[in-house]
Amino acid sequence: MNENSSGNYRVLIVDDDFRVGELHAEMVNAIPGFQALEPVQDPRVVPKLVQSLKPDLVLLDLYLPHVSGIELLRELDVDAIMISAAIEPKNIDKALRSGALAFVIKPFDAKTLASKLRGWARYRRQLAGTTEFNQQGVDRLYRSLQGGEESSASVGAAPTEHAVLSCVKEAAEPMSVAEVAEAVGVARATAQRYLAALVANESLELQLGYGTRGRPEHRYVAR
C-alpha cells in the first residue's frame, strides 16, 4: 500500500467525462481517510500514472476511448473497482474475471461509493492484520469487498470466540497468545486461531511486544 503523508488512501479516478470524474472525486474526498488524485480522461496515460503516482486504488470506468476499461484493468498491478452503466452480465463477468475487486453501477450516490471504499479499506487492513487466514477470515475478506459491515462479535459467533474477545477486552494490558490460552482454558493453537480471526475482523489489534527473555512476540489489545 502507498498511503500519503497524511495517512489517506490515494484514489485515482479514470473517466472520459471530466464532469463525472470531478463529481466522483468530490465523493471520494468527502470520505474520511481517502484522497482523490486528479481525475484522468485519457486511459492511455493511466499505466504510467499508476507507476509514478502509486495510487492505492483505481476507480475505473468500463467504456473509455482508445482502450476499454477491461483491457486497461488487465495491465494494472493495483487494486481496482470497476464503475460503469454497462450492466449486461457479460460486462460484469469480464470485469470481475479481469481483476476488478468490485463492480459499482452508474449512476451511484455518495453513500454507495463510501460503503464500497470503506469495505475495500477494511479488506486491506484485514490482509495486513494477520499472517494467515482460516476459512472464516477469507469469507470476511469477500464480505468486506462488498461493503458488508462486520460487528466485533457477530451473531452466531462461537462461544470460545466470545470468551477470547472478552478476555482481551477486560485485560489491563496487551495479552500474549499463551496468556489468553491460559485465561480462557484452551490450547495455544485454539487461542491463536480465534485471535487471528478477531484481528482480521478488526475486533482486536495486533501489537509487537517483548517477552521475559527480550524476544519480540505478538500481543493483542482491544481496539
UniProtKB/TrEMBL annotation:
Q: Where in the cell is it found?
A: Cytoplasm
Among Pfam families, the record links this protein to: HTH_IclR, Response_reg
Annotated positions of the 4-aspartylphosphate modification: D61
What the entry lists under Gene3D superfamilies is as follows: 3.40.50.2300, Winged helix-like DNA-binding domain superfamily/Winged helix DNA-binding domain
Boundaries of each Response regulatory domain copy? 10-121
Q: Which UniProt keywords apply?
A: Activator, Cytoplasm, DNA-binding, Phosphoprotein, Transcription, Transcription regulation, Two-component regulatory system
PROSITE patterns (UniProt xref): RESPONSE_REGULATORY
How is this protein named in the record? Transcriptional regulatory protein
Q: Which organism is it from?
A: Glutamicibacter mysorens
